[in-house]
Structures
1.
Amino acid sequence: MTEDSSRAAWLAQARSYLRHADPVLARLINDQPDFDPRAWMAQLPPMDLYGALLFQVTGQQLSVPATRRTLARIQALFGGHLPAPAELLAVDPSQLRQVGLSWRKINTPRDLATRLTDGRLDQDALSIARR
């Protein structure tokens, strides 16, 4: 069984369960039979662990489309990619403010970047922990 067919089977099973569990959800599912709840993930840029943390911080209290727009502006600032921790620290924080991040959302990834670059956080250990 391929990953696509396995995912399709999972999605069909989930839709069936929700249709039977709730008549309102049944109508919504029937109205949008091809809706894929994970389709938005395919529109995200490639991310390592730090990029995923940056995505999470950026997207707090924002819609997915707003988060994607902000991430696109961050990528543009860094030559078309999400920054590595050292790259983020090398840019003036006011440039991050200009791409749409609040000061709090600037300080959090900068603090994480500092901890990753000075060794207080080990990205390899964090990557193993998330598996």
Note: The mean pLDDT is 88.
2.
Amino acid sequence: MATQTTQTTRRLAAAAIATAALLAIAGFTALGSVFEYPQILKEPTADILELYRQHQGAVMAWFVVLMLSAALLAPAGILLGRLAGGSQGRWIARLGVVAAVVQVVGLSRWVLLVPGISRDATDPAGTADAHHSFELVHTWLGTILGETIGYALTAAFTVLITLAVTRAVAPRWMAYLGYLSAALIATGVLIPLGLEAASLTNFAGYVAWCLWLIAMAVYLWRTPRTIPGGPAATGTGQRPAPAPGTASNG
């Protein structure tokens, strides 16, 4: 029964992370086509809102896709946390949920707030106020919360999964890819400081991260192996204490 439960958890986790990656790829690709995202964010506010109005329905729909992708980090974190077990598993679950909430809130501005702001901007009497509102929302919900804090949480989440899960079920190159994608994603916190190169490294990190998620999903779905210290290995969901004279794997 424990083995069957672990297999179900592995496959649910695989489905969650694969779906998150595929939705992210689809969302970013479509928004890059119809909204020039994310490059458009460097343009003046008036230009951003003008392009947004031209394709509002499609832009909103694809941001909903990105929100769904981000939201899947919560169940993925919970399921992967169960596989890892112990304190690492609990941190994976917590970081997955918090990262999901932060990114969903940040992305939701394009669906909940920007439509009204964009409409107000077409009234000459309210244009200046609308532009100011957009810049506030973009700074606090976008740059600070959804992006900077979101990048840091996603990077930490990825490192923990790599330490606790990837190394146990996948080849060594998968662990290296996990660490590399986390490091590149983390460079995104430097973007607000004006480091232009960080935009490129952050983008490369998310490409690598999506590939890593898909590869992880394949290994989780197919592997019959249990994770050392995980629930199926210990029967309790807690990591066993290392034997005297040995180092813990975590």
Note: The chain has ten helices and no strands.
